[in-house]
Automatic annotation (TrEMBL):
It comes from Parascaris equorum (Equine roundworm). Gene3D superfamilies: Transferase(Phosphotransferase) domain 1 (1.10.510.10). It comes from the Eukaryota. Residues 1-156 form the Protein kinase domain. This is Protein kinase domain-containing protein. It holds the Pfam family PK_Tyr_Ser-Thr. PROSITE patterns: PROTEIN_KINASE_DOM, PROTEIN_KINASE_TYR. The keyword Transmembrane does not apply.
Length: 156
């Protein structure tokens, strides 16, 4: 693992350790004494929400989607915004679904602390669901994050 990857991973872990919410994946620690380095998080039995929806989408009732999936993701995002975090990659693939049908936000690799984050260099980004404002200006805000959430749930 390169020094840059280690640095990114540790940044993600440091950010995650600040969060304690039912709709945000919990971090328990980081294994750094041997390869591969790992972030140890709570185990979510259901896996990624996008995979769950691919397998079960036509059998999932609208009420379940609204009350469990959409609301759970929204509560997690609201908490992250309250904690001054911009996730920057809200998508069903980064939401985990428990066997109790709760959604938990995960994958904080692109997340940043603050009210806004300005891209300073060209980087690989998941642009498929970026808000038009972010695409045009490179500025991520809590509002843009909410717009990305809207784009994500429209796919559910």
């Amino acid at each position: 693992m390169t020094k840059e990857k280690i640095k990114e991973m540790m940044k993600e872990a440091r950010l995650m350790r600040n969060y304690d919410h039912p709709n945000v994946v919990k971090i328990y620690g980081v294994v750094v004494e041997r390869e591969p380095l790992m972030i140890v998080m709570e185990f979510i039995t259901g896996g990624a929400l996008d995979e769950y929806l691919r397998k079960n989408g036509n059998r999932v009732k609208l009420e379940e989607k609204l009350s469990n999936m959409c609301a759970g993701a929204a509560w997690g995002i609201e908490y992250l915004h309250y904690m001054n975090c911009i996730h920057r990659d809200i998508a069903a693939r980064n939401c985990l679904y428990t066997n109790r049908k709760h959604v938990k936000i995960s994958d904080f690799g692109l997340s940043r602390k603050g009210d806004a984050y300005q891209l300073t260099t060209a980087k690989k980004l998941p642009i498929r669901w970026l808000s038009p404002e972010t695409l045009a200006s490179g500025l991520y805000t809590k509002v843009n994050s909410s717009i990305k959430y809207d784009g994500t749930i429209s796919k559910w």
